[in-house]
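Structure tokens please, single chain.
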Amino acid sequence: MPWSEMSVMDQRREFVRLALQEGVNRRELCRRFGISPDVGYKWLRRWQAGDRELADQSRRPKRMPKRSAAAVEAQVVAVRDKHPAWGARKIAHCLKRDGQAVPVPSTVHRILCRNERIKPSENAPPNPGHRFEKDAPNQLWQMDFKGHMPLANGARCHPLTVIDDHSRYVPCLKACANEQRPTVQEHLTATFRRYGLPEAFYIDNGSPWGDTSGARWTKLKVWLLKLGIRVVHARPCHPQGRGKNERFHRTLNAEVFAMRPFRTLPEVQRALDAWRLVYNLERPHQGLEMNVPADRFRPSSRVMPARIPKVQYDVGETVRTVSSTRSYISFKGQFWRVPQAFVGERLAIRPLDRDGNYGIFFASWQVASIDLTIDTPVSDVSEQVSAMSPD
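Here you go.
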């Protein structure tokens, strides 16, 4: 199959960086990127032979032993002009990574001040303290909407962001017209097909993963659970528990949305596609010791299935199918309410530790309760809110 029409050079570049990670199944990665193994290995050979024209990188010489101070200054200014939100440390590291003999960050800062790229009063931000981090990629992805922004044509853009907790790699960055479940599910499906399935998602309590009533059983969550993806909700009123996502949103705003206005959603998406590749493959990340997210990320070995699996229950269990019109099941001659998200799903009824008490389960998750010792059916089971940093 051919490469997608969108950002062909960027896709080649991303493919090569992911294919070079240790333990990656390259043929599976070719399938996810929609290319044949012959094409994939061709780009790998060219990359390993030193052909860097697969990517939109600088054409300037790797080494200039006799360059003047003016040339160094020009290089610093050029990087700043290309990435106006980057500070002295990122610029110095980027030039050093490209083989340039560059001054220390404090000198780069003075060059930027001298060339009126930043104000002399702008100081580097303080070093962050210790932060929670998963041990490996794909153990936990953080997902959120950045918050809507107006477009020049009168519409709204809702940027959907997904970040791998360990590597800070961004597998999904989409300009959405709304914050509804079908939109999110469509983008996640495409993301899972390319990068595989994470073990868990860390999300807040807003729509479409939660709702204003406080219920956390949603259709989107049920879909993720069927795929074997655990869902962890952040503690209400504790945004610091999702610091990586909040910090990413500030970076996204500074490096994309603060740079220029946008008129349409396709225009925003083109800008996001281009910047996502810069963020994943080029931009030094202070939280990663100035490495780039692609250095620590590899696609998940868990493949997106062609069909969503059905929940299986043991032989002999009491199983009920929730009505397609009402969120109730029948048991012992009574109707018992279950969360709306399970309409049309099969649920198991299992005895609990007290006589007359039963739990209603979706696979291994209890979603409602039954107490035969009282006349009034019991409401849904509310989930326990996760700790600030998920285990």
